[in-house]
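Our collaborator T.R. sent over the components below with a one-line note: 'Predict the complex.' Nothing else. No constraints on interfaces, no templates requested, no preferences about which chain binds where. So this is a plain run: every listed entity goes in together, and whatever single assembly comes back becomes the starting point for the next discussion.
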Amino acid sequence: MEPFEQHTGIAAPLIQINIDTDAIIPSREIKSVSKKGLEDGLFAEWRYLSLKTRKENPEFILNQEPYRRASLILTGENFGCGSSREHAVWALYQWGIRAIVAPSFGSIFYNNCIQNGMLPVLLKKEKIRELQIFVQLNPAVNQLTVDLKDATIIAGSDIRYSFEIEPSNQENLLQGLDAIGSTLKMMPSIEAFEENDHQTRPWVYFK
Amino acid sequence: MGLTLIEKIWQEHAIINHDDGNSLIYIDRIFLHERTGSIALKNLENANRSVRNPSHVFCTMDHIVDTFPGRGDETLMPNGKEFILATRSSAKKMGINFFDLGDPNQGIVHVVSPEQGIALPGVTLVCPDSHTCTVGGLGALGWGIGSSECEHALSTSTLIIKKPKMMKVIFDGTLPFGVTAKDLILHLIQKFGAAGGTGYAVEFSGPVVENLEIEARLTLCNMAVEFGAWTGIVAPDAKTFEYIAQRPFAPQGLAYNKALAHWENLRSDTDAQFDEILTIDCSTMAPFVTWGTSPQHAIPIDKRIPNPAGETDSSAKQSMQRALQYMDLNPGTKMKDITIDAAFIGSCTNSRLSDLRAASAVLKDRKVASGVKAICVPGSSQVKLEAEQEGLDQIFRAAGFEWRESGCSMCFFAGGESFGEQQRVITTTNRNFENRQGKRTRSHLASPETVAASAVSGKLNDAKSLGIG
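Returned assembly:
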């Protein structure tokens, strides 16, 4: 996983509540047993007028200049709700998104972001509105910067908002940590737990 | 200070409690399916890692397999076979419990895990599937995860997580006849929003929940995720313990007795602290049905579609307007005046034997309205068998329903079978999202009774209006 420290880029306002993972990557766009090749299916129902010909819908924001080059998304409450498919994060990442700013996220989606070097930025609706106004004045130039070390999002010289993130999530993103590798080092504790638990809850174990 | 039920389970599974609030939690059971389990197993293989405890890992085929009689590895979904073959190959290589096509234990993961006694009170159970919270109906702590966390659980038998905030939802009063667990959860989501439970683990309680049968509790907990909650749970009781006894993977004999003594303590202490308590009086409830594209767009079936103009929150108003446009509906229309093209009974929410019995009670000696495509997909091979032994399949068929093999089927559109463009479907599933059941398909969520009554009426209707009850 790529470490995440700081990122500056064009932010696309996709202000809708409850954008679900079926919308982010429709089930039928998950065509093989692979993490790769998902960017083409990102927001497919909204992005294309025809799924077959892939003719673009000019009204969808990510098809418009300069948002075609966006690497941040500003959005509404409960982004990434619904299905657990991690493909939603993979598709966003592969398309070029590095951070998503929302008042709240679907909890599985939020965790999936942390696992993949994608920064979920929790920010109040009113502050997202301010960022949207700033961006829309001149989208190509008025880029946003997210700084994970300080947990802040910066817009020009006037706006600087801090956002909340669990220290452990912050650390994992900053370092690009492999969680499995770290946990495997705790195997003695896990085995000791099991030995003890086997006495307390023998019915849980099949052998 | 007392502990909540979830805190008790948490404490029992915490291997290490870190200073930052995270815990290393022991995972008792892992369930996989061919849609997302395949990728988790493949990633594990690619990383040269193995499944640490294969006897605690289960895998079924439900998401991609067809549900037509005589089905095989070929699917209507393009490339579906690749998922099926990959899952079969990985499952065999890793030596996990595997319920393949044709296995009597095959079925929808969240139907199979309670039915087979894999989910038990007080266990932790995860699956790369958002509806894993279903097993909360047995008093199990289950939640959905992504592929990466699934790989973590498979290779270490643990997950690193932060304890969520605690919410208690009290369903008070007495449930009127014909109102079901599905209506309860739709009512809750309608009242507090699809993000109303975000950040919380929810314990469902109160007299109405105590009176629910186990399968209804599974339905209630199934849609906790549609409420935004991390999970939902109901304290296990005598009904739960009776339900579990004799299930194939549940403890038997002395082991069952020992477990029982332990399970009887699985309830929130009277002085347990909750961060939030919500109460809903159920005494005057009517069956609910959705009109829009979020489960929060729900309404009693005897009401009219709400007007976005009356909504003060601008983003909620915008979402309502967009939903009405997608659904091709107008504010003020009576819900019962909406005509339908199709009816679907199935999914991890409502496809258990009690659901099929409830629907068949409505369908008996009645016919599906002309022009309505009606399909019933039992939740598991076991449910299908038991339903056929009772003759329910005959009632469904005589009414004009198709009777299928078990699986997730048309709960979602993976590129194979669907209801078709702009078709209006009354459905017992859990998500009425845009394009969820097919391109431009319009989904109305409801209980099995309401779906059956609508199917025979040709428009949205509840069983009571047919003189049932």
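Summary for T.R.: Residues 38 and 86 of chain B are 6 Å apart (CA to CA).
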